[in-house]
Amino acid sequence: MRVGTEEVFYVCAIPDETGAASGWLELEIAAYTAAMEPDWKSLTQAFSRNGGGFGLALAQAMFRLPWYAWRIEDVARALGVTRRSLQMALFRESYSFDAALRRCRRLNQLLREGDARCRFAPMARSAAQEPPFR
Question: Shortest CA distance to 67 belongs to which of 122, 28, 27, 112?
Answer without folding.
Answer: 112
